[in-house]
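EI: anyone free to look at a 159-residue chain?
SC: sure, send it
EI:
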Amino acid sequence: MILALCTPIRSLAPLLPQILNVTGDSRFAMRVNLLAALVLPVSFVVGSAAGVAGVALVWILIYPLFVIPSARRVALRLRLTGREYVRAIGPPIVGSAVMGAVLVAVRLGLPAAWPPVVRLALLVLAGVAIFSGVMLTAFRTRTMATWLPYESCVMADRA
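SC: here you go
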């Protein structure tokens, strides 16, 4: 469950080097990825002394140190203000945060005697339902824009 805290950052991370490559800043993306390739494995070995939770904690603490500079660089390259950038990534971050908080409560409420595969399946289904529910209620127009032509969403907003 610790890694659920990293979901919003992890969901954006694969896009950042691609955007940097397209905008002509592939050297920066390469340097960040090379540094991550050197630092992350060593960090995971150190964190493994505390078990799986230690590795997860290292992921949460160290991984953002590579993603945040790339995100900042992308915002600069695309000439996005901080407000525009946060507005663009806000909905999935909110959805992930709500999903993570609810799943922690659901996990605590599941009987420990149930088989792990059943518990996992229920948590996955609950996660999909919670995230989808947040996105379809709080950010309906933007969510529907991924499935419907733009004109349909604009008309829905006006109705």
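EI: The chain has two domains: 1-79, 90-159.
SC: 👍
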